Amino acid sequence: MGKYFGTDGFRGEANVTLTAERAYQVGFFLGWYYNQHPIDGKRARIVIGKDTRRSSYMLEFALSSGITSAGADVYLLRVTTTPSVAYIAKVDSFDCGIMISASHNPFYDNGIKLINDQGEKMDQETIDKVEAYLDGKGPEIPASTGADIGAAFDYDAGRHRYIAYLISLAVHSFRGKRVGLDCANGSAWSIAKVVFEALGAKVYVIGNEPDGTNINQNCGSTHLEALQSFVVENHLDVGFAYDGDADRCLAVDENGKAVSGDEIMYLYARYMKDRDKLLTNTVVTTVMSNFGLYKALDAVGIDYVKTDVGDKYVYEYMVKHGNRLGGEQSGHIIFSKYATTGDGILTSIKVMEVMQARRLTLSQLCEPMTVYPQLLVNVKVKDKDAAQNDPDVQAAVENVTQRLGDAGRILVRESGTEPLIRVMVEAETPELCQEYVYHVVNVIRAKGHEVK
């Protein structure tokens, strides 16, 4: 990770960490950089999407000003999803794509996600060049003048093309199904309902009244309670919740029970294996996936691997090894045959596909997998390396590992973006999770690592 760009873009509080000036500089550099060798040999073309945050408009204009000042053209998808930017960047041969979003964060945060011409997250070499320019270490770039100045265009056609693509991926009609959607007052609000109605479902929507400050506020994939109640009260067959930029999806079954990304991977992996579609017979997970997922996959003869946390690492592994299914417990699910990133709406279509093909409810599809209780505690520390490498902390972790045996696990890792040590335990009961997590946390505190 770099100074500004983490695993999921340049993220921070709008006009505090992530300012309009910074956005202009990012746009100016990218416009110049891609104009050196544009894909079409003429003028570089960059496509931009944004979520519904109030600050997204400011950052959109700043990025556009930078790009056009450097002589490149910018195409504006306006409010749309991250996966739609990735899709359009690739299929419409843009030099790169930019998504303005802080995903599941509160409205006052925002972010700039960079996407290459293949619809993948930007390579680190290019990000390093952007960061060097932000720090005043890059090349002297002259502003364009006269006819060399770029232009900005509305690009509604791109968003419509993405919607049509999603609809084309469904292999079953959803007619007769009552589906609830929680759009998190974010990017999905103007897309998801259109897609599900086109596929024949009777659609009920919440979280579809964005006002610039209510994105992710008590709604969406980080607050499933609203959708759980909504599904039960309206007697719906299933519910799907997205995050702010709709690259995540979590589900709610017909009984109002939450369904995690791990359970979604499990049910779709079984569906693929039964049809000989699970290439490499492997699901790509992260170290945060639930212990119950691995036991359930073992039971049906499906292999799995674990990557670092972040859909970026999941996708990189999938590309390298030819895997078709991977993702995170949080709902970033990647279907590599159809997308280069997690796509919440695509994920919900795929869950519906299994329900329709198997003629089973979501609860029945998830029933074979037992989700282990899990407790995660974040400890703010002075020095992450010192805390994690403390011999007494390591001894406490080893003690818990031995006590859990093969009936659970402990994971202690550093946050990639904050001064935190994350202590997570999965065990057979919530009480054991509590006991074992605090066995380690209390040692971290007793050794003076915690910032109070």
Q: What report would you give on this structure?
A:
- This protein has helices spanning 20-35, 54-69, 82-91, 124-134, 156-169, 192-198, 225-233, 261-274, 291-299, 311-321, 344-358, 362-366, 384-389, 391-404, 430-446; strands spanning 5-6, 9-13, 45-50, 73-79, 96-100, 109-115, 152-154, 178-182, 202-206, 238-242, 249-252, 258-259, 282-286, 303-307, 325-327, 333-335, 374-380, 409-414, 420-426.
- The chain is globular, with a radius of gyration of 22 Å.
- It has 15 helices and 19 strands.
- Helix 3 packs across helix 5 (156-169), helix 5 packs across helix 6 (192-198) and helix 8 packs across helix 11.
- By secondary structure, it is of the alpha/beta class.
How do you describe this structure in short?
This protein has 452 residues and is an alpha/beta fold.
Key features of this structure:
452 residues; alpha/beta; seven-stranded mixed β-sheet; five-stranded mixed β-sheet; globular
Helix-strand makeup class: alpha/beta
The percent of residues in helical segments reads 25-40%
- Uncertain runs with pLDDT below 50, 5 residues or more? none
What is the overall shape?
Answer: globular
How many angstroms separate the termini?
A: 27 Å
Question: Beta-strand level of the residues, as a percent range?
Answer: 15-25%
